[in-house]
Design a protein that fits this description.
By secondary structure, the chain is of the alpha+beta class. It has one domain: CheC-like (Chemotaxis protein chec). The protein contains 3 helices and 6 strands. The protein has a 6-stranded antiparallel sheet. Helix 1 crosses helix 3.
Length: about 150
């Protein structure tokens, strides 16, 4: 991707959202994330323009439950799949806005869409990068793609 945002900067943009909403600060995890790893759940959002930008957040079931619990002020055991989807969708929407602003882009954000368990993010087209982040035992993977 041709952006000048470092992994650490991207983690700070995510944390700007998660710290405020969830009380969670994410840091870059130095272990790599394989694109081929199956995902529990992911929320994807397109940012209009040429080139197109795609922002996605994915996470494990355990982390989705913890994030949902923080967002809906309940316990992880009470978080259902709809709450997980809503939580990731809200986070990806706000994160995409942070990235758009950091890149000084005057573009329209699309609507988030959720990919269910085991569905891969389509990284075949365009240029992609991933940033794996952790906050305690919770993890998020930020996917940032540039498409034609």
């Amino acid at each position: 991707m041709k952006t000048q945002l470092t992994d650490e900067t991207l983690a700070k943009l995510v944390t700007h959202v998660t710290q405020t909403m969830l009380g969670m600060a994410f840091r870059v995890e130095q272990k790599g994330h394989k694109d081929s790893e199956p995902l529990m759940r992911a929320a994807v959002l397109d940012v209009a323009g040429i080139p197109g930008i795609v922002v996605a957040l994915s996470s494990s079931e355990e982390s989705c439950a913890a994030i949902g619990a923080a967002m809906f002020m309940t316990t992880p055991e009470k978080v259902d799949h709809t709450m997980m989807n809503d939580s990731l969708s809200e986070l990806v929407n706000m994160t995409a806005g942070q990235i758009k602003n950091a890149l000084s882009m005057d573009r329209t954000l699309g609507l988030p869409r959720v990919l269910s368990a085991g569905t891969k993010i389509d990284t075949e087209k365009g240029s992609w990068r991933t940033v794996r982040m952790t906050s305690g035992r919770n993890e998020l993977v930020l996917w940032l793609g540039e498409t034609q």
